[in-house]
Amino acid sequence: MKPIVAVLMGSDSDAESLKPCGEVLREFRIPFIAKVLSAHRTPKETILFAESAKKEGIKVIIAAAGGAAHLAGVTAAHTPLPVIGIPIETSSFKGMDSLLSTVQMPAGTPVATVAVGSGGVRNAAFLAIRILALEDGKLVKALEDYREKNREKILKKRTLL
Question: Distance between CA 158 and CA 40 in Å, rounded?
Fold first, then answer.
């Protein structure tokens, strides 16, 4: 199947921390492509990808970067598609630098930003799925089923006490 979600990462060193994003997308059978692109080291290629993504059938872009973390913002500046930013945790500031770089976008160039860490990585995929579900009733049902399974799992744990 042709990918409808693009997962961009600023460095191949981010791939390991992004695995939960891919796992969620696979669980919901969302075809995606993962690419290493950098706002600073490959700016031309990043812009070309962002400009052509919609024409290539991409519907949502997830962009993860650490430090200066401009990947999501640069991507959002060059595409009409929704962009979800994942701030990657850094050793020097524990991801706070990445978070601020990703979330502080000027009006008119929004980047939906999730939390630093594995919960945020998973939520980026879930947010992409919710966006896609606006046009896909099967995804709505799959999300409802997922929430029900989680609810049941929590209730069982509560009754074990």
Answer: 48
Give the helix, strand, coil percentages of the chain, each rounded to 5.
50, 15, 35
Q: What's this model's pTM, rounded to 2 decimal places?
A: 0.94
Q: What pLDDT score does 91 carry? A: 87
CA distance 32 to 132: 12
Structural domains of the chain ordered from first start: 5-136 (3.40.50.1970)
Q: Does the pLDDT of residue 45 top 60, yes or no?
A: yes
Q: Which helix (H) or strand (E) holds 145?
A: helix 137-159
| Tokens coding 38 | 């950098």
Cα separation, 53 vs 40, whole angstroms: 19
Report residue 49: phi and psi, to 5°.
Answer: -60, -50
Nearest to 126 by CA among 16, 9, 30: 30
